[in-house]
Write a structure and sequence with these properties.
Length: about 425
C-alpha cells in the first residue's frame, strides 16, 4: 500500500516537503525515473487511479493561495463517465493527473494534453503520465495568461513514456475536455483579453476576484467542434451577476450548456463547499438543459461525504436517458430559463422539498394530556419539597412556610387551606 511513509521511502527522502524537488530531479534522468517506476510498481500494480492524490493534498498542496483541491475518486469517475469515449482529451489545471489517469483508463489509445501551473505538482504529473505510458503533451505555466515556462512531450514506448523538453506546441483541440480548476481564484485580466478568440464571443471577462468563467472559457476554446466538456465549479457560477451573468447568458443562448449536476457538500478533502458539474457541448441539437440535484447522493464517512458507485450509476442513468425524476432531475426549456432571468440555481428547477407529515389531532391531544399530567406530577413533588424547607431564623421560617402554602394552593386550587394573608407578587419574588 502506498502510504505517505512508503512514497517517501521509495523516493529516498526523509520528509515529505522534499518530495517535489527530489522527484523533479529524478524525472530528468531516464534511468533513475525508470528505476523509480519499477519500484513503485512492486508496491502498487493498479494503474486506474492517481497514487498521489491524498499524498499531495495532505503534504504538498497550497489550499490557501492556489485553491488546490484535488478531485476525490468518486467525482473523478463520475466526471470522466459523463464524457464517454474519446480519441483526445485535454485536462486544464491537471494537478497530479487524477482526471487524466481516469480518462486514460477508459481510453488507453487516446492522446492527452495537460496544463498545470504549480511547480510542486508538475513532477508528480509527469511521473503519472509516464508510468502509465501515455502519449501526451504537458505545458507548465499559467492557463489564463497563456504564459508557459516549459512544454514536455511524452511518447509511448515499450514500458514507460519517453519524456523530452520541446520548444513549443500548436493549438490543441480535444474531443473531450475535463477540468477541476481552483475555485474562485483571483486573477489579473488584461483589457486586451476581450479581443482574444476564447473570450471575444462572450462579451465580458470574468471578474478579478473570481476566475471561474475564465477557466471555463479557456477549456471551451480547446474543445473541438463536436466535443464535450465537463468542468467542476462552485455553485456561485450558476447565479452570480454582472460579468458572470453576461457570460452565462451567452453560453445558454449559444446552446452550449447541456447539463447542470449538483454534487454533495463535504465531498472534497479540504473544502466543505458543494460543487457542480457543468457539461458543455458544441453543435448541440437539443435546445434544453438537464438539471440534476445529486446533493444527497453520497455516503457519510467520517467528516466527508463519499460519492460511491451506486450514486454514480443513478446520476449517469438520468443523464444518458435524459429523463425527469421527481425531486431529482428536470429538463428546462430556454423559455423557462429566461423566465428565471438566466439564473441556473438548481432549486429553481428541481424541487426537493419534503413537507412535514401532518400529525393526527387525536395524537396531538393525547400528547398535550400527557404533558399536563407531567406538569401536575412535578408540581406536586415541588410542593412537597417546599413544605419540607426550614428557615434559619423564625422570620425566614415564617416567610418560607407562607410561600409554600401559597404554592400549594396554586397547585391544588380545590383543596381547603387555613386562612392566610395573600402573598403579593413582590413578596413572592423577594422570597425567591
Amino acid at each position: 500500500m502506498l502510504t505517505i511513509q512508503k512514497i517517501n521511502e521509495l523516493m529516498g527522502i526523509s520528509e515529505s516537503f522534499q518530495a517535489s524537488y527530489k522527484l523533479s530531479e529524478i524525472m530528468h534522468d531516464e534511468q533513475r525515473r525508470n528505476d523509480l517506476f519499477e519500484a513503485f510498481l512492486t508496491e502498487e500494480q493498479d494503474l486506474s487511479f492517481d497514487w498521489f492524490t491524498e499524498y499531495f493534498q495532505a503534504e504538498q498542496s497550497d489550499r490557501k493561495n492556489k485553491k488546490q483541491d484535488f478531485t476525490p475518486d468518486g467525482i473523478v469517475t463520475l466526471t470522466s463517465s459523463l464524457l464517454g469515449s474519446t480519441v483526445s482529451n485535454a485536462d486544464i489545471c491537471a494537478g497530479t493527473g487524477g482526471l487524466t489517469i481516469k480518462r486514460w483508463a477508459e481510453n488507453k489509445n487516446a492522446s492527452f494534453y495537460c496544463e498545470e501551473f504549480s511547480d510542486r505538482a508538475l513532477p508528480f504529473l509527469l511521473f503519472n503520465l509516464a508510468v502509465h505510458n501515455m502519449n501526451a503533451v504537458v505545458r507548465h505555466g499559467d492557463s489564463l495568461t497563456r504564459n508557459f515556462k516549459a512544454t514536455y512531450r511524452l511518447t509511448k514506448s515499450d514500458r514507460f513514456s519517453e519524456i523530452e523538453l520541446i520548444d513549443s506546441v500548436g493549438d490543441f483541440k480535444a474531443q473531450t475536455v475535463i477540468m477541476n480548476p481552483p475555485y474562485s481564484l483571483p486573477w489579473k485580466p488584461d483589457k486586451s483579453y476581450i479581443d482574444q478568440p476564447r473570450f471575444k464571443t462572450f462579451g465580458a471577462l470574468a471578474p478579478k476576484s473570481k476566475s471561474d468563467y475564465a477557466f471555463l472559457l479557456e477549456g471551451l476554446h480547446q474543445l473541438d467542434d463536436n466535443g464535450t466538456m465537463a468542468i467542476i465549479l462552485p455553485h456561485g457560477v450558476l447565479f452570480r451577476g454582472s460579468a458572470e451573468q453576461t457570460i452565462r447568458i451567452k453560453l445558454i443562448e449559444l446552446n452550449l450548456l447541456d447539463a447542470v449536476i449538483g454534487l454533495p457538500e463535504k465531498a472534497f478533502f479540504s473544502t466543505d463547499i458543494p460543487t457542480v458539474v457543468l457539461v458543455l457541448k458544441k453543435n448541440r441539437a437539443d435546445k434544453t438543459i438537464l438539471f440534476i440535484d445529486a446533493s444527497k447522493e453520497c455516503t457519510k464517512k467520517a467528516k466527508n461525504n463519499v460519492i460511491e458507485q451506486q450514486h454514480i450509476d443513478k446520476i449517469l442513468d438520468v443523464y444518458r436517458t435524459r429523463k425527469e425524476v421527481d425531486k431529482f432531475s428536470h429538463i428546462a426549456t430556454l423559455g423557462e430559463i429566461k423566465g428565471n432571468e438566466f439564473n441556473l440555481n438548481i432549486p429553481r428547477y428541481v424541487d426537493t422539498f419534503e413537507p412535514e407529515p401532518v400529525v393526527p389531532l387525536d395524537q396531538i391531544m393525547a400528547e398535550m394530556k400527557e404533558i399536563d399530567a407531567q406538569i401536575a406530577h412535578h408540581s406536586q413533588e415541588l410542593s412537597v419539597m417546599m413544605n419540607e424547607l426550614v428557615g434559619t431564623n423564625p422570620y425566614a421560617d415564617s416567610e418560607i412556610k407562607r410561600f409554600a402554602s401559597f404554592f400549594s394552593d396554586r397547585v391544588n386550587p380545590n383543596k381547603k387551606s387555613r386562612k392566610r394573608k395573600d402573598v403579593t407578587r413582590g413578596e413572592q419574588l423577594s422570597l425567591l
